Amino acid sequence: MKPSLIALFSLFAFIASSAKAFVIDAEGEPVVNGGTYYILPFINVLGGGLTLAKTGNETCPLSVKPYPSLPIHLEHGLPWKIASPLRIRYLPTNVWVDFFTVDETIPSCVPFPSRWTIVEEEDGVKSVKVSGHGYENTITGVFRIKKYTKIGYTYKIVFCPTDSDSCKDIGLSSRGLVLTDDVPLGVIFVKVESSEVSKQVINNVLEA
């Protein structure tokens, strides 16, 4: 076989393998770097999309958790800008990403811009909150999106501390999203520009 053909086939193979590694949204399209998405639990009995809520002694909603909605009335939660510092058009799995608030949608008491951060609370639980309140007990590191199950376009979010060689799954507790050694929270990504978020969107994802 000619070297030029070998190179061409190698290029096609690389493109195909790279495409499989993209984070895919609920409509089957790659997640855009810097795009705005709703993030919903793929098991909708866990609630609606991720939003901000007050937990503990908070007087302002700073904790990230699913919107408390029923499966028959699914709420999409807040939109989140998902961005990587890498100069890429689409987001592959397992690269550094940040989750930012979108100005028009957050309560006035929440600083803008804010991004997800990990805060170690007094009882040792490491919770997902939004930055900007001058926490003294934040944990430095990066978030990554990884494929979770073979069911549809489902993913999990992990946090990789800078002082550790391993990453921790983001799971769900009564106070919201937390680092966990137990079951991670499986999520899907729905473009804000999409039509109304409903149970049918979830069903389409699970059937993919």
TrEMBL record:
Keywords: Disulfide bond, Protease inhibitor, Serine protease inhibitor, Signal. SUPFAM superfamilies: STI-like. Pfam families: Kunitz_legume. GO terms for molecular function: serine-type endopeptidase inhibitor activity. It comes from the Eukaryota. Residues 1-21 form the signal peptide. This is Uncharacterized protein. It comes from Acacia crassicarpa (northern wattle).
